[in-house]
Specification:
The complex is a heterodimer of chains A (242) and B (487).
Chain A: E1 19-32, E2 35-48, E3 52-56, H1 63-70, E4 78-83, E5 86-87, H2 93-102, E6 104-107, H3 119-125, H4 134-147, H5 163-175, E7 181-185, H6 193-208, E8 212-216, H7 220-224, E9 228-233, E10 236-239
Helix pairs in contact in A: 3-4, 3-5, 4-5, 5-6
Chain B: H1 2-12, H2 14-53, E1 59-62, E2 75-77, E3 84-85, E4 91-100, E5 107-108, H3 110-116, E6 121-139, E7 163-174, E8 187-192, E9 204-208, H4 209-215, E10 222-225, E11 228-238, E12 249-252, H5 253-260, E13 265-266, E14 268-273, H6 279-289, E15 294-297, H7 298-303, H8 308-345, H9 347-355, H10 360-396, E16 399-402, E17 423-425, E18 439-442, H11 449-476, H12 479-486
Parallel strand pairs in B: 7-12, 9-11
Antiparallel strand pairs in B: 1-14, 1-15, 2-17, 3-4, 4-6, 5-13, 6-7, 6-14, 8-11, 9-12, 10-11, 16-18
Helix pairs in contact in B: 1-10, 2-8, 2-10, 2-11, 8-11, 9-12, 10-11
Classes of the chains: A alpha/beta (242), B alpha+beta (487).
Chain lengths: 242, 487
């Protein structure tokens, strides 16, 4: 196992101008009691800017772990992981926090909205770490909600919205900061078919506007709409795009 | 956004907010009330002490307590022909005696000079505490078969029908030329004048206002002390409306000594030190110079106050203080536990916030802010409850009785009467309680700004402590683990 010390400053990346992610020899091991679990066992992966990638695989196959490494939420046990110029493997927690704040948008299966806040306020929470003026934040919140078709639901609380609408609020929260990449973990897992298509349409539109999409999914219908399909099995990534 | 999020969170879990704030409110209210009552009791003690010892008295010197059987004679003796016998054979008896308070030791008057000569003593004045007792009554004609003239007590059940009254009042002989120190330094002359230097040797008296009112006496009247008529030249009242003065009747010292037949003795010397810093040294010097005397400081005197004031003081300082501390501890613990449990319940929320870029500091700030506001809400509620309770206490104005040490009836005082015919004995320990001894003091609960500031500060501190624990838990949450835990 290789461990590397955190570094606050990012060093120049070897990535090309089109490459957003470049992962090389990524491993991630956990200790569960006395057992060591290898979630990622030497992942090699390049993802270009503007791509729409889905990651499929069996439950417990490491999909969410890979998404967390890509989202600067977790550091690999060994290997190199670059997001643009940022070394995700060795940067400090504070630096990774800044990366998450500016460059990465997250969408979760369970929406993860704050139930006491309205849709607009939930979207605003994603802008909070950027420290921008209130007027600009308001404009961005309105723009993001309009983008997902929920401009008229800004004052509704999550409990007053349907599952699909809640997920669209979560997407609005993720895109309001104008990130470089949107990472979605089973974004349609809790939705029915019709709502799933609604959400996928929103995601496809965002990708069409140039946003890189990386979606972890069990749903083949979702995977089929991606430009690039990956399968993660036994800790290794395989490209299954045809 | 900070305040919106905070407000919505606290509003969203009203039950928890109310429980935590209520716990803190009760604790804070208790702290306020206990502090105010403590201040009220202190004021009552000061008022009582000032009334008895005067303003500016730092130390008192008293003679050693007399052993039982010593001290002033405690009996009335009527010699043959001591009363007037009427036509029906009934003998009317009346006798007034002025005696040193039972159980009280005395000091030779020369001790005053010794005290005055000690370094650090600014002023000293002596006083003699006495009790005037008047026995009056009627004895019916004795039955023929009684052992008349033999001195033997009558046979049990064979003689009766007499009626007796015993009236008493406290008398304080004071040096009229040294009124600036001692009991009369704290009084207000409400009528007439105070004793003056020229009153030495004169049969004049000054009366306590309460006593004068109860007896219907006024300036210009005469009061009988030990069979001598004293012209009342002034009426004095305590400067505190809550307490009576030290005695009921004040006489020039030399007159009091003469009437009591004690010679040149004093029962108490009131000492004023040159400065507060000199008090301990003066006390030590007095104790060294007068090993047989009792030297008491103000705090000793305060400790000597008995009655329900002492009980209230003891109750508030012991039970009240500990109850406040215990309640505050429980409230803080409750706030901490609720905050920690809240953080555990919000793992998903904080994990999400960290995932979207919130820094640890921002998350901790949020948790701490929520706890702080909860604490302040509790503090505000506690302030309202505390103020309402204090208001209720002040409106109710409960009175508590107090008995300063110097005015307590002595234990083990003069000899008990032997029941000889014509004699009347009084046991010291079972002796009367003088009206001036037990004083009813109105207990107030004064509120100071500092109590309010301290209460709000405590509430804020409790909130911060809870927030610190909760924030620490939130900071330790890894976003990946937090999200994995809920996946």
């Amino acid at each position: 196992m290789t461990t590397t010390a955190p570094a606050d400053e990012a060093t120049p990346s070897p990535a090309s101008t089109r490459s957003l992610y470049r992962l090389s020899g990524i491993t991630r091991r956990y200790t569960q009691g006395k057992r060591v679990v290898t979630a990622l066992a030497g992942v090699e992966l390049d993802i270009d800017e503007g791509d729409f990638v889905t990651i499929q695989g069996p439950t417990g196959g490491g999909k969410s772990t890979l998404l967390q490494v890509l989202g600067a939420l977790d550091r690999p046990t060994s290997g190199e992981a670059w997001l643009g110029d940022t070394d995700l493997a060795t940067s400090s927690s504070a630096h990774l926090g800044r990366v998450r704040a500016k460059e990465v948008g997250f969408v979760f299966q369970g929406f993860n909205l704050i139930p006491t806040l309205t849709a607009a306020e939930n979207v605003d929470m994603g802008l909070e770490p950027l420290g921008m003026p209130r007027s600009e934040r308001r404009a961005r919140v309105a723009e993001a909600l309009a983008h997902v078709g929920l401009a008229d639901r800004a004052d509704h609380r999550p409990g007053e919205l349907s599952g699909g609408q809640q997920q669209r609020v979560a997407i609005a929260r993720a895109i309001a900061k104008r990130p470089r990449v949107l990472l979605a973990d089973e974004p349609t897992g809790n939705l029915d078919e019709a709502t799933r298509d609604e959400v996928l349409t929103v995601l496809e539109n965002l990708n069409g506007a140039g946003l890189t999409l990386i979606v972890v999914t069990h749903d083949s219908a979702v995977a089929r709409r991606a430009r690039r399909r990956l399968r993660l099995e036994h800790g290794l990534v395989r490209d299954i795009t045809r | 956004m900070y305040w919106t999020y905070l407000r919505r969170e606290l509003g969203g879990r009203t039950k928890q907010t109310v429980i935590v704030a209520s716990g803190l409110a009760i604790a804070i209210a208790l702290v306020i009330v206990v502090n105010s009552l403590s201040a009220g009791v202190r004021q009552a003690q000061e008022a009582t002490l000032a009334a008895v010892y005067g303003v500016g008295t730092d130390l008192t010197v008293t003679g050693a307590a007399a052993a039982p059987g010593e001290g002033a004679p405690g009996r009335f003796d009527f010699s043959e022909g001591g009363g007037e016998t009427g036509d029906d054979g009934t003998t009317t008896l009346a006798q007034s005696r002025l005696t040193v308070e039972p159980g009280r030791g005395t000091l030779d008057a020369s001790v005053l000079d010794e005290v005055s000569s000690i370094d650090g003593v600014a002023a000293a004045a002596g006083a003699l505490s006495l009790t005037d007792m008047t026995f009056s009554g009627e004895l019916p004609q004795a039955p023929a078969q009684s052992a008349e003239g033999t001195g033997e007590p009558p046979a049990r059940g064979g003689f009766g029908g007499g009626s007796f009254d015993v009236d008493s009042f406290s008398v304080l002989g004071i040096d009229p030329s040294a009124a600036s120190v001692g009991p009369l330094s704290a009084v207000e002359v409400t009528e007439g004048r105070a004793l003056a230097e020229s009153d030495a040797g004169a049969d004049v008296a000054v009366l306590d206002a309460s006593y004068a009112t109860s007896q219907g006496l006024a300036v210009g009247d005469t009061i009988d002390v030990a069979g001598t008529g004293m012209e009342i030249v002034g009426i004095v009242a305590s400067s505190s409306s809550d307490a009576d003065t030290a005695a009921q009747v004040y006489l020039p010292l030399d007159v009091a000594q003469g009437l009591a037949g004690t010679g040149e003795v004093l029962s108490t010397i009131y000492v004023q030190a040159e400065g507060a810093a000199d008090i301990p040294a003066v006390q030590s010097a007095l104790e060294a110079k007068l090993p047989d005397a009792t030297v008491s400081s103000q705090s000793d005197l305060a400790a000597g106050i008995s009655g329900s004031l002492a009980s209230a003081s003891s109750l508030i300082t012991s039970l009240g203080t500990w109850l406040s501390i215990l309640m505050l501890g429980v409230a803080v613990l409750m706030a901490v536990l609720f905050t920690i449990s809240g953080v555990a319940r919000r793992t998903r929320e904080f994990g999400t916030l960290k995932a979207i870029g919130w820094s640890n500091r921002r998350v901790v700030g949020q948790v701490a802010g929520e706890s702080l506001v909860q604490g302040l809400l509790g503090g505000a509620a506690g302030l309202v409850i505390g103020l309402a309770t204090i208001w209720a206490i002040n409106v109710a104005s409960p009175t508590i009785s107090t008995t300063p040490a110097a005015a307590q009836p002595g234990a083990g005082a003069g000899p008990a009467g032997d029941g000889a015919p014509g004699g009347f004995g009084m046991g010291g320990s079972g002796g009367p309680t003088f009206s001036s001894s037990a004083t009813d003091v109105v207990l107030s609960a004064p509120l100071t700004v500092w109590v309010v500031v301290a209460a709000v500060g405590l509430a804020a501190l409790a909130g911060l402590v809870a927030g610190a624990f909760g924030g620490w838990r939130a900071a330790r949450l890894s976003p990946a683990e937090a999200l994995r835990a809920i996946a």
